Amino acid sequence: MYNLGSLEFRLGKYKVAIKHFHRFIQLSKQDPVAYYKLAHAFSAEGNARKAEINYKKALKINSDYIDVIIDMGLLYIITGFYNRAIKQFEKALKIDPQNSYITGLLFHTSQVIADFKKINKWASVLNQLTTQTLKAGQGLLETPFCSVARKIDSEENFRIASAWSKNIQDSTSGFKTNFLINDRRGRKQEINIGYLSHDFHNHPIS
What we know:
Layout: H1 2-10, H2 14-27, H3 32-45, H4 48-61, H5 66-78, H6 82-95, H7 100-112, H8 116-136, H9 144-150, H10 154-172
Helix pairs in contact: 1-2, 2-3, 3-4, 4-5, 5-6, 6-7, 7-8, 9-10
């Protein structure tokens, strides 16, 4: 049921996926993943209330399930509950203090509510984490969109974008597609531009 639900979810058939995840829960009532997947499907369908209910059920089983905590925070951003989102991200950061992605979410959400004290706080932390991860060549960096939105250092913007792109390339290089990810230089004069957005949030607008 889990695999069928995941397949239907990837195909964008959220109602069918929800049915499979409900059956999965009947077989695995104490598995937080079951409730997480169901919540994710409800969120994708646009049913925020049911998504929140099932995220909470997953956290009741495993209170440190960081993916659930983060996604619940993202749900609160989508629904406009920014202070709730911040609480979720702060909880996630306690579990993984060196996670620059979570720090970036805190910075971005603080921007939205114009909390300048927290903006400065998270910007400072994010700068440190980004510098460390760039030097080490590892870890999840802040998104290029977040970088461009908060910095005018074009060289660092480029380094962050390059590192982020490499992370995506590494994670998708095994997929079978017509778009050659690892060998993008073809024989044609034209170029193919592939656009991959991380979360559709915080896009710079000019």
